[in-house]
Amino acid sequence: DKEVRAIFLRLFAQLFQGYRSCLQLIRIHAEPVIHFHKAAFLGQRGLIENDFLTKVLNGMAFAGFVSERGPPFRACDLFDELVAYEVERIKAEEGNPPKMIKHVRELAEQLFKNENPNPHIAFQKVPRPTEGSHLRVHILPFPRINEGRVHELIQEGLARNQGAPPATRVDKKCVVPAGPPVGRFHW
Hints:
This is MTMRD protein. InterPro entries: dDENN_dom, DENN_Domain_GEFs, Tripartite_DENN. GO terms for molecular function: guanyl-nucleotide exchange factor activity. The protein is mainly alpha-helical and about 190 residues long. The chain has a domain at about 1-115 and about 170-180. It contains 7 helices and 4 strands, in the order H-E-E-H-H-H-E-H-H-H-E. A hairpin with a 6-residue loop joins strand 1 (about 25) and strand 2 (about 35). The longest helix has 19 residues, at about 95-115. It is elongated.
């Protein structure tokens, strides 16, 4: 799953390379509006006649992408780093499948770490009973739950987790890197 997502991250980083240079922040309104210059983006890349990319840029998903990722000051993520710093690496790896696979695996590992920031906190799944297990005589019935003991255990767990780091990663806002200038894209 993560490797497929990493491949798509690489694809979109290549496809949208330099998109930040075609963003314009309009501040006449109370809330700033971000405008994307599609013609400039396609022209700089030599893809004015490319029907696929034109349709992608005209879609609602891309409009959401621009409104979410357009602000110059926001929390940065793996995609921003790829667009800003890794596009040249991605281009260089096009003819070298082992390097490409290595990079995809590195990205997949980063995606996994982003979704599981605290690997030491693990949840154990309880297996479902096998078919016919209720007919076995040797299994004792489930004991009644002692409410006082449950409350004690909850309090102990809360006390232990008091000093633990937060479960989610805190996103620090920063200036989003623009990345390298827009270049020609080869299909």
